[in-house]
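Backbone Fold Data
Goal — fold tokens
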Amino acid sequence: MAGWRERLQGLTGRFRRAAPSAPVDGARGGAVAASLRGLLDDPSIPADVRAAMAEDFRRVEHMLDRLENEELHVAVFGRVSAGKSALGNALLGREAFEVGVLHGTTTGADVARLDEATNAGLVLIDTPGINELGGEDREKLAFEVAEVSDLIVFVADGDLTREERDAMRTLAATRRPLLLALNKADRYADDEREGLLERLREHADGLVRHEDVIAVAARPTPRDVVEVDARGGERRISEPRPADVTALKSRLVAIAEREGKALSAINAGLFAGRLTDQVSARIASTRREVASRTIRQYCIAKAVAVALNPVPVADLLLAGGLDAAMVVQLSRVYGLPLTRGESGRLVAVISTQLAALMGAVWGMQLASSALKGLSGGLSVVVTAAAQGALGWYATVLIGRAAEHYLVAGKSWGEQGAKRAVADIVASLDRDSILREAREEILRRLKK
């Protein structure tokens, strides 16, 4: 897993430092594609992690297809009824996206190819309105679409509201090239339209290049005409007008032809880099869960065994053996196997530090163990839960310390074992651990 991850992180590091329109040569695009394949095929990713992140891995597959097919994916955002879907249909030249009149009708991310621009490899993505009912969830979906898109077209039908300005800033933060389309421009007179475009450029200054603020009319208002029949009779009819999206379409095609490969490679690399971090975090979380279950199992085994064993020395020998076995299991969980001898030495290091920090605790355990021997077993019921709970607590400390050592790659770090063990002792709630241990031991002793 490390090989492709290092290559990918190196590529994405350079992409993060580059401008969105920086050229990317074929070799670098091929390196990104190779890293994506490595991510998809990596056998070290656990099956449960792949299942939990199945949608993300499907996105990687789509990105790989995009790179190989030289596609440029364009996401369209805007308020409800600003005309996003209508604009997509006008660009496509067909009714690919559902269009609502009074309320937004887009509830998911629909995708359709721009038929008129197949040579440029443009793919259009329509998204939910940013202020639809349940907007937080739908905005989240919209921003997720932006992350896996190469270019964003933000659609407005007038001067920008504060909500629209905030959304544009959020989208600009994704470092995707951003175009601003003034839809329904046919409703304005020429001087009004130019004044509105200038205000939009002011609002979008620093987010959108001035030449990328473009007026369009996805569904122009029909015009009324008077029709005269053969007898000279007149009737007024409504005549539809063709969409006016030529300027925007030309701009998209030009960007695709000039920057399409670069944008696809950069954005695929950035997304795959984020996914790599998420996979690593998910694997770490899964390992922590398995490690916690493993430690608890040994806590129970050690606590009950120590509580029921009437021979003091055997208590201590059994406890040490269980701790070493637990560390061996933890080392396998973290993919850094230790031999039984190595685990025993690690337990000795941890126990030495614990003894220095918590001599009183170990003294109580030794006293309880001795009392058990002198009483001939009659005081087992009195002392078993207390001694077993101390054994449980010691196992938690040893397990967490060993986990720290393994997570750091078999290292205690710069500050050494003493500080690491002390931090673990300070981080755990001893009273709650002892209370849980006593309850569990008594429940099992009753059985």
